[in-house]
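Posting this for the archive.
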Amino acid sequence: MEPTWRAVASKLAGDVSVGAIDSTKERALAARFGVRAFPSLYLLRDGAAYAYGNRPRTEAELVAFAQGGWLDADPLPSHRAPNSGVGRALGSIAAAPGGLAATYRRLHHGRGWPALAVVGLLLAGPVALGLAAVAAADAVVTRSARAGAVAARAAAAAAAAAAAAADDRPHAE
């Protein structure tokens, strides 16, 4: 497919940027797209991604798709479109293990840090974030519980006052 792809890139030069990704090396990006077969072709446009699918893979068909044929295709859901906000966030999450491994190698092998110190440093961030999330959730739940208790006490006091007022009224016999 490479000769066809180069010809398509040449024909679309200046109008559409054409590129190729090696999914064996860019695993996080392939995961974001949900690549299951090779080659998988996509058009990214205006925050949406369009899969080329099972259309003919001729130069003319590929050029036609890039120049407007994509209008007949349904965009991928936002969580699979790597150029959407959701796709970018998911891509960052998918790329995190590789970044952590690279940081470990750089600190342990490159700078000679003890393995335990590197692991402790790499775990400190997620642990701190987790503790902050628990503290924030606790503050919200506690505030909500306090508001509920105050409302319950106010309702009980109002009910007691109403009952006392009812007892003070003269009764007809």
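The beta strands are 42-45, 48-51. The helical segments are 2-12, 27-33, 59-66, 85-110, 115-168.
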